């Protein structure tokens, strides 16, 4: 299965409720696993009330680290807002491990900054940064960028990037935040 990155939209009231009870993060990022997730107790508190539009998700699949690399030139970290996928500078949703560490939160102001930054990035810029040999040498996940199996990895990443831009634009228009979870 491997590591995937899921982005989840949430309203500001839901974001505040989640920060008060971080164990509820599974209700948003992995609703099907909420009752069996590590550290989750369905009896700890009542479920968070979700507002309209909360819980809409985008699964970047295994393209997440490729997108991060093509935006920042780095495997991890980098300057925000474009480094949001692999940034430890974003607010953690408590210490609840959702798979590969805690989920990270972009509040509405950071979503707006990200939306503005992504708007200026064109697919041709991503393509110019795409170097399968370098990405494999640096171990950009999933580490199969240079494989000769007939799959066009750049097209996969560009498609996921286009979905990402639309998702962030929608979250920005709604005035909401985004949870970033690598699972």
CA radius of gyration: 16 Å
Beta-strand content: 5-15%
Write the H/E string, N to C: EHHEHEEHHHHE
Structural class: alpha+beta
Widest sheet, order of strands: 2-1-5-4-3
Ranges where pLDDT stays below 50 over 5 or more residues in a row are 34-43
The end-to-end distance, rounded to whole angstroms, is: 10 Å
Describe the main β-sheet briefly.
Answer: 5 strands, antiparallel
The percent of residues in helical segments reads: 25-40%
Overview of the molecule:
By secondary structure, this protein is an alpha+beta fold. It is 38% helix and 15% strand. A five-stranded antiparallel sheet has the order 2-1-5-4-3. A hairpin with a 4-residue loop joins β3 (91-97) and β4 (102-106).
Structure at a glance:
The protein is of the alpha+beta class and 183 residues long.
Topology:
Blueprint (H helix, E strand, L loop, with lengths): L4 E6 L1 H9 L4 H5 L27 E3 L4 H9 L18 E7 L4 E5 L1 H12 L3 H7 L2 H6 L15 H22 L2 E6 L1
Antiparallel strand pairs: 1-2, 1-5, 3-4, 4-5
Task: For this entry, give a set of tags.
single chain; 183 residues; globular; alpha+beta; 38% helix; 5-stranded antiparallel beta sheet; 7 helices
């Amino acid at each position: 299965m491997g590591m995937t990155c899921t982005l989840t939209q949430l309203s500001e009231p839901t974001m505040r409720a989640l920060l008060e009870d971080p164990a509820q993060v599974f209700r948003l990022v992995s609703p099907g696993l909420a009752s069996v997730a590590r550290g989750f107790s369905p009896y700890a508190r009542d479920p968070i009330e979700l507002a309209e539009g909360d819980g809409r998700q985008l699964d970047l699949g295994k393209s997440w680290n490729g997108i991060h690399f093509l935006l920042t030139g780095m495997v991890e970290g980098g300057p925000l807002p474009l480094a949001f996928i692999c940034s430890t500078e974003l607010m953690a949703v408590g210490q609840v491990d959702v798979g590969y560490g805690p989920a990270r939160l972009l509040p509405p102001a950071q979503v707006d900054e990200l939306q503005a930054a992504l708007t200026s990035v064109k697919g041709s810029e991503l393509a110019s940064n795409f170097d399968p040999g370098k990405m494999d040498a640096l171990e950009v996940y999933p580490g199969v960028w240079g494989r000769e199996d007939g799959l066009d990895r750049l097209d996969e990443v560009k498609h996921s990037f286009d979905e990402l831009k639309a998702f962030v634009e929608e979250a920005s228009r709604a005035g909401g935040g985004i949870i970033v979870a690598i699972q």
